[in-house]
Amino acid sequence: MRYFFHIAYQGQYFSGWQKQPGVKSVQEVIEQTLSKILKSPTAINGCGRTDAHVHASQFFFHADIEKEIDFDLLYILNKALPYNIAVFDIIKMEGKPHARFDAVQRKYDYFIHTYKDPFLSTQSSFYQLNNLDFDKMKAVVKLLPLYKDYRAFCTHPDKYEHTICNVMEADLFVNPKGDRLRFHIASNRFLGKMIRIIVGKMLMVGKGELSFDEFESELVTLQPSKLSLPAHPTGLYLSKVTYPYLNLEPRTEFIHSTQGIDWISI
């Protein structure tokens, strides 16, 4: 029987979602815990592959379990998992829906703070920047839904069959003091480090190191006009995953977005 698991995790102590030799991953921790509880090797398939140190305030995986669950697996699993992984719902599914391939939209949020704050250090990316041009940054963000091919915003584009992404939403928000930012984007799919590369380029625009025309040229020509490092992973969250048959609201809140911040769309 196939079950969908609705979860969230803090990614700072993991080398990403996907299981890899020699490193600690979210997938491996959950598989080991679930297999121990069920007393049977249990493989899981996630809705995506978050990078090392990237968070997920909403994430889904599916597992095929031989017998129907007739005990409080939700309670037992949460007790057994570490504090930085939470399971909210376990949903019995009809047929063989796929947590990754059936997703029609994924939303991400990227948080930045421009002053040193020890309570934000694992939740948001610290960039000590002053006098960012928010208007120019917002202008390039608004370009994103107008283009489909994101080859220039991917670390290894040739490993994909294609680099087309249907970006449905893109926006930039700032707090009243102008020292914390939130970049939001939604698409049917994302390429490797695509969001972090976009954020890195957006910051270059804000600092005056990359012009609006140069940014748009990358979307048109599919070639990066100026090289830049991807933004830090710490501030990135997979925040919403939607299926044709399942559309649940996230059950958790970003700690830094609930402390009285009035996010303003620029």
Structure description:
- This is tRNA pseudouridine synthase A.
- The active site is at residue 51.
- Formation of pseudouridine at positions 38, 39 and 40 in the anticodon stem and loop of transfer RNAs.
- It catalyses: uridine(38/39/40) in tRNA = pseudouridine(38/39/40) in tRNA.
- The protein is of the alpha+beta class.
- The chain has two domains: 2-92, 2-Layer Sandwich (Alpha-Beta Plaits); 105-248 and 261-265, Pseudouridine synthase I, catalytic domain, C-terminal subdomain (Alpha-Beta Plaits).
- Helices cover 20% and strands 24% of the residues.
- It has five helices and ten strands, in the order E-H-E-E-H-E-E-E-H-E-E-H-H-E-E.
- The protein has helices spanning 26-38, 73-80, 134-141, 194-207, 212-221; strands at 2-9, 44-46, 55-64, 85-92, 105-113, 125-126, 167-174, 180-187, 236-242, 264-265.
- It is globular and about 60 Å long.
- The N and C termini lie far apart (47 Å).
- The relative contact order is 0.19.
Summarize the model shown.
It contains five helices and ten strands, in the order E-H-E-E-H-E-E-E-H-E-E-H-H-E-E. It has 266 residues and is of the alpha+beta class.
Q: What's the CATH H-level superfamily name of the largest domain?
A: Pseudouridine synthase I, catalytic domain, C-terminal subdomain
Beta-strand content = 15-25%
| Highest CATH level, the class of the largest domain | Alpha Beta
Average predicted local confidence, pLDDT: 93
Shape: globular
**DSSP strand tally:** 10
Low-confidence residue ranges: none
Q: What is the rounded Rg? A: 19 Å
How many structural domains does the protein architecture include?
2
Largest sheet: 10 strands, mixed
CATH architectural type of the largest domain? 2-Layer Sandwich
Distance between the termini: 47 Å
Order of helices and strands: EHEEHEEEHEEHHEE
Please tally the helical runs, counting DSSP H or I stretches of 4 or more residues: 5
Helix content: 10-25%
